[in-house]
Amino acid sequence: MVASFFGRQTNSPKAEDVLPAADRFDRIVQVELMRADRSESQFCLAVFDTVACREQVPPADFRFAEYILNRLRATDHAGCLGGGRIGVVLWNTDEDGARKFVNQVLEDCPIRPLPAVELFTHPSGEPVDLDRVRNKRGTKDSDDSDSDGAMPVRPLEELLLNPMPRWKRTLDVVGAAVGIVALSPLLFATALLIKLTSPGPIFFLQKRDGWGGKPFSILKFRTMYRDAEQRKAALRAQSEQDGPAFKMANDPRITPIGRFLRKSCIDELPQLWNVLKGDMTLVGPRPLDSREAAECEVWQRRRRWITPGLTCIWQVHGKSKVPFKEWMRMDIRYIRARSLWNDAALIIRTAFAVILHRGSH
């Protein structure tokens, strides 16, 4: 007998009675992700949606959970995903093997109608389709078959992408709007100084990787001479940041006023407009140059699961003093611990880091 809210009791069994609950299964999937990345192996995740099944006593998800347990190999894992969905991790299984598993499961499935199925794989060479992700979250039904009639296998990233929480988007809109209005005198003065001290545009636009890898144009005050991008390749060997990112303390491409703007982080303030548009958030992993992001290892691309931000853990821990892989680990750690209180703490710590000019070039 299972306890429910307000101390009431119910005899109705649930899938969670025989399978790991959603939060525990999420941790299992995360462990499998790390294991696959370290061993350069592949695994698939089959998601069975029983919500449309008409089984009532016992519920369809419970009957399917009992059934699926007897179909697993010793290396596989099954668990609840919430909303009547049950996931099955198929370790060291390619796309054809995953389709074969699903067909065998549905052949003898004890519930009717048969559950809807989606297949995901990691790693995947297929790019994330953000429109498909948004449509999936808006409706349960879709035509989920390839042109040859086979069940498609999507990148696992499509399932794990984290949408922006409502509280966070509200904080972004209010914070960015207030920031733009309050800092408008400083923004206008900075724009005038840039125009008067060096030829070229006031703003610098660059393609960066956003949520799910979608590129967007980041907006910054220009701190370099106009030919900076052309000179970057020649300076690559002098980068103080390991990995694909480029960081250099005495970068000769920086203008005199640009050095001050970088040290004070004033050059980043136009990104409040990116936040207001929704391309960025106040707190989140810093977006990488799209060319640098393409050089990241598979596990490092998990930072794209959430919207990039103005500041994150890396900004308050020394920036270029931190090895690139540790920077990526910091971003991934933030994803797991994202909350209103953590965001507030990071904003406060970032303010102190800016005042102390810690790690800024």
TrEMBL record:
<protein>
    <submittedName>
        <fullName>UDP-N-acetylgalactosamine-undecaprenyl-phosphate N-acetylgalactosaminephosphotransferase</fullName>
        <ecNumber>2.7.8.40</ecNumber>
    </submittedName>
</protein>
<dbReference type="GO" id="GO:0016780">
    <property type="term" value="F:phosphotransferase activity, for other substituted phosphate groups"/>
</dbReference>
<keyword id="KW-0812">Transmembrane</keyword>
<dbReference type="InterPro" id="IPR003362">
    <property type="entry name" value="Bact_transf"/>
</dbReference>
<keyword id="KW-0472">Membrane</keyword>
<feature type="domain" description="Bacterial sugar transferase">
    <location>
        <begin position="168"/>
        <end position="355"/>
    </location>
</feature>
<keyword id="KW-1133">Transmembrane helix</keyword>
<feature type="transmembrane region" description="Helical">
    <location>
        <begin position="173"/>
        <end position="194"/>
    </location>
</feature>
<feature type="region of interest" description="Disordered">
    <location>
        <begin position="122"/>
        <end position="152"/>
    </location>
</feature>
<comment type="similarity">
    <text>Belongs to the bacterial sugar transferase family.</text>
</comment>
<feature type="compositionally biased region" description="Basic and acidic residues">
    <location>
        <begin position="129"/>
        <end position="142"/>
    </location>
</feature>
<dbReference type="Pfam" id="PF02397">
    <property type="entry name" value="Bac_transf"/>
</dbReference>
<keyword id="KW-0808">Transferase</keyword>
